[in-house]
Amino acid sequence: MPSRGALAPLMSHIGVRTASELVVHGKDNRGEPVESAEVGRVLPVPEALAELLPWRGLRRGGTVAVRGATSLLLALLGPATSAGSWAGVVGMPGIGVLAATEFGVVPQRLALVPNPGAEFAPVVAALLEGMDLVAVRAAAGIRPEHARRLSARARHHKSVLLSFGAWPGAEVELHGSTARWSGVEAGSGYLRTRRLVVEAVGRGAAARPVRRTLLLPDSAGGIAAAEGATEANPARPRELAG
Amino acid sequence: MSAPRLLVVWCPDWPVVAAGQATGVPVHIPAAVLSANRVLACSAQARGNGIRRGMRRRQAQGRCPELVVFDDDPARDAALFEPVAAAVEELAVGVEVIRSGVVAVPARGSARYFGGERDLAERLIDQLASSTGVECQIGIADGLFAALLAAHRSVVVAEGASAEFLAPLSVSELDQPGIAGQGCAELIDLLNRLGLSTLGEFAEIPEREVAARFGTEGVRAHRLANATQERPLDRRRPPPDLSITQHLDPPVERVDAAAFVARGLAERLHAGLASRGFACTRLNITASTEHGEQFSRMWRCAEPLTPAGIADRVRWQLDGWLRIGKGDRPSSGIQTLHLEPAEVVLGSELQLGLWHGAEQAAAAERAGRALVRVQGLLGEQSAGTPVVQGGRGPTERVRLVPWGTERSVRDDPELPWPGRLPSPSPATVLVTPEPAVLRDTGGAEIELTARGELSAAPHVVRSGWVTGLVSDWAGPWLVDQRWWAPERAALLARVQVVLTEEETGTQTALLLLRAEHDSPQWMVEGVYD
C-alpha cells in the first residue's frame, strides 16, 4: 500500500479532490465567499467575474476556456499578476499588451511566446511548470489527447490553464457575446464602455449555465457588473440616404 | 590574520580606453563614457578640460565642446580587457580579474622568481606596453583593497605596512566597484557626517562597535580600512560536484550564441549552489575548443554572484576570447564550457531585500527557468516580457524584450504624446495591419481632407478580415510623424468605428489607421474585442 505522501500527487493527477475542497465547492453554489483556508488555492479574479466562476476565482490546477472576447481573458489575468503571480501567453501574437495593462496586468510578469509553431505543447508544458497562469491559443484546434495531457500538467503543477477558444475538457467555459459599445457618436467622443453578455457553462459543479451582463471595459477601464439587466438603447443604424 | 600579498595591475580610465580602441578614436582627443547621462569615466585629456566623474552630459559638453562621448558597455570593456589579462598571465600565475581594467596577482611567488617585487612590476609594465599597447599602473600591498589603492598611486607598500598606508586616505576611497559592496556610497556619506574622514580614524573603532552600528556592510568596509581580509576566514572549498560542464554541439563561434549558452549555464550553476545554501564569489571559467586548446580565467566579485551576474561574466569572457586577434584566439569553435565556483560563501549572504518579498522572488526565478527552457526550444527571440513605452499607436507603445536582455524603456510613456489614443486600448492588435476599404453612403472612398478631417461620415468597412455597416465612429486622431524630415514624414490618422450586425445587434469596434503618403490606404490596426 503506498504511503499517504506518495498518494497525494497521484490523486491530484487524476483529479481527485480533498474533502475540504468539496465542502467549499458546495458553498459556492450558494454564492458565499471562499473560506480563507482556500484562498491560496484560488487565484483572484475581478469581482464581476467571480460570480460566474465556481470557487469565485481561478482554481489552481483547473482549465478554463474563454471565447468571444479577448478582453475577457485579459481581465482574468489582471488581479493575479498584480498579486505577484506570473502569467504566460502562448500563441497570441496580437494580444493587446496595452489593454492588458489597463486591466491591471503587470507587464514585468507577463511572459509572451507569440509564435510557438510546432512546439506548442512543449512550450505550454514548460510554462505551466513555472507560472501560475498560462493563457494559450492553439492555432488550428488542438487534438483532445494533447489537450488532456496539458490539462493534467496544469493540475499537477497547480497552475491554471486558460484557453482562448474551445478546449476539450475545460471545467468552465466563459463565452462573451452581444457586445454593445457606447462613447462614440457621429465622429465625436471615443470608445468608452461596452456592455457584454457573458455566459459561463461548465461541467460538474458549474453545469448550470450562469449569464451576466458586464461592463467590459467600464468607464474606469476595468470590469464591472452592469446595473439592471435591461439592454441599453438598441442599435441605431445610420440612415442610408441623407 | 594578515591579508595575502597582492600585486594589482590597474589600467586607468579603462572604459574610455576600451571605447577608444573599439571605435578607433585616437587618445589625444578628449573622450568620456556616459551612463544614464552622467560621466562614468573620462580620459586624461578630458580631465584636463575640467570634466569630472558624475558630471551631467550637458555640463561636460559645455566645458569641452570637442568631447567625444561613448555609451557605457560593460561587455565591450570586458571583452577588450581579455588581452591585457592574458599578457599579465604570461609573467605571473593566479591571475584574477577583479573588474574590467583591474587584475590581481599573488605577488610572492612571481616576485621571488623575477628577483624582487620592483623587478616584477617593471617587467609587467614593459610586457603590457609592448604586447597590448595599454598604459597601466602597478601597486603591491597586503590585501586587495590596499593593493588597488597602491596601484592608483603607483607605489609598493612594504609588507605589514598596509594599515599605515591606508590610514591617511579619505574614507571615500572605500567606493571601489568590484571590491566593496553596493551600499558603500551611503556608508561613506554617513562616516563623513560623523566626522570620520580618513580610513585610519574609521579603522580605530573596534570591530564590535562597527558591527553593532553599521551592520554587515560596515564590518566589510572596516576590514578593508584595517587592511585585513575582506571576508572572515571561514569560507569553504566547494565540493567538486558543484562545478558544471556543458558540451556544445554545434561548437560556439559567435558571441550571441555564447551569450545564450551562458544564461542557461548560469541558471544551472546558481541553482546547484543555492540548493546547498551556497553562493559563489569567485568563478573560474574554462573553455576548450575542438582542437583541444584550453582557455581559463578567474573572475572575482565582492557581492555573491546572482544568476545574471554569472551569466554576464561568462558572456564577457567568451566574448573576450572570441574577439582576440589572430594567433591567440581559439582556432576553432568552443566545444566545452566548464564553470567552477572557486570560492563560495554561505547563501544567506545573498539574501533578498526585505521589500522585494521572498515569495515573489521565488516565483520570478521559477518563471525565469521556464522562459529559458522555452528559449531553448524556440530560440532566444521567441520569448520575453513586454515593455510599455511612449508613442501614439497601440503597436509602437509596446515592445517585446527577449528574456535575459535588459528591459529598457526607449521613450518615456509619461511624456505627453499628442495624437495618442485614449484608453481603453484594443484587446487585439493585428501583427500586420489588414488593408480595408472605407466608404461613405454614396460609395465614395473616405479620404482625409487638408484640414485633417474625414471627407464624409463612414458608412461601410470592407476588408478580408471583417465587413460591416458602420453604426458609429469617432476620430480622427492625427499624428504628424517626423515632419522635420520631409522624405520620411508621414501623416497618420486613426479612426474608431463601431460595426453593428443587423440580425443580432451585436457590435464590433475596430481601430482603423490611414497613412497619408503616395498611396494612402485604410488598414485595420486593432480590434476592441
Automatic annotation (TrEMBL), chain A:
It comes from the Bacteria. This is Protein ImuA. It comes from Tamaricihabitans halophyticus.
From TrEMBL, chain B:
Keywords: DNA damage. The keyword DNA damage applies. Coiled coil: none annotated. Residues 30-154 form the UmuC domain. GO terms for biological process: DNA repair. InterPro entries: DNA/RNA_pol_sf, Rev_trsase/Diguanyl_cyclase, SulA_CellDiv_inhibitor, UmuC. It holds the Pfam family IMS. Residues 227-247 are annotated as: Disordered. Poorly processive, error-prone DNA polymerase involved in untargeted mutagenesis. Copies undamaged DNA at stalled replication forks, which arise in vivo from mismatched or misaligned primer ends. These misaligned primers can be extended by PolIV. Exhibits no 3'-5' exonuclease (proofreading) activity. May be involved in translesional synthesis, in conjunction with the beta clamp from PolIII. Belongs to the DNA polymerase type-Y family. This is Protein ImuB. It comes from Tamaricihabitans halophyticus. The lineage of its organism: Bacteria, Bacillati, Actinomycetota, Actinomycetes, Pseudonocardiales.
